[in-house]
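Lecture notes, unit on protein representations.

Consider one protein chain, 314 amino acids long.
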Amino acid sequence: MSNENTTPTPAPESAQQTDKVSPFLTAPLPQGTPQGQQQSLEQRLTDTPVTGTVPKYNLPRGANTGNVGPTTHFGYQTVSSEEKAQKVAEVFHSVASKYDIMNDLMSFGIHRLWKRFAINMSGVRRGQHVLDIAGGTGDLAKVFSREVGPTGHVVLSDINESMLNVGRDRLIDAGCTNVDFVLANAETLEPFADNSFDLVTISFGLRNVTDKDAALAAMYRVLKPGGRLLVLEFSKPVFEPFAKLYDLYSFTALPLMGKLVANDSESYKYLAESIRMHPDQRTLKGMMENAGFQNCDYHNLTGGIVAVHRGFKL
């Protein structure tokens, strides 16, 4: 993981070590040194639980905001904006049961380090309220549940009920009693009131959202003043030779692994294409600023394969 200019707070070693105070409760809010910006951060200053059986490709209300054009991209394909939400739902319904296994295989386990870095940058504290959007199988929500404690609250949300059900089962089995599970569309975050959360996160989900500007505006709306948004997403490698090698791996190895492990090469071909179509680091930073976020920064990981973007509602 490439992070020459940042020294994140160490992650807690184990949820079992109850006699050891978590660094999240004592350490100052991580700042790091943002990459690719002119100024550092120092220089710039309801819920409906998912229950029972729902239709296979059920989408919550407000799944299309109408704020984008009549067509958009689905990977490298051009599709109608309404059709994309359904196609993305089908992809993640297909991969839900093998999602964690495939993440480990595709990233050689490095995705766990990316998520740990993002959690360290979140500055989550005891008693806070956290919304994890597109939270899937609940990797981040599980840690947030432990860190906010019994006086805090975590909402794991996803637009895809197959993914949400996997996350719900996993966190219930882990004994996370302070977590709600809500089927919600990132473009509207319709179930949630204004100024509800201290922290909003979206991990490897923003690139699948049709109207990203609407989603960022919704995230800004539900954050409390002083709250922060954290976006962990695939981005653009910063070294051209590395980028070409990464492309070769993405478009050959990923579909092959998808075929062998999940019996679904097309979904993983789409995932590779969706990464290429996602805005680069500086473009996404600008989109966050346009949505109203301040003191925005980003941190490249593994040579820019992944970036952590952060912004504050001041």
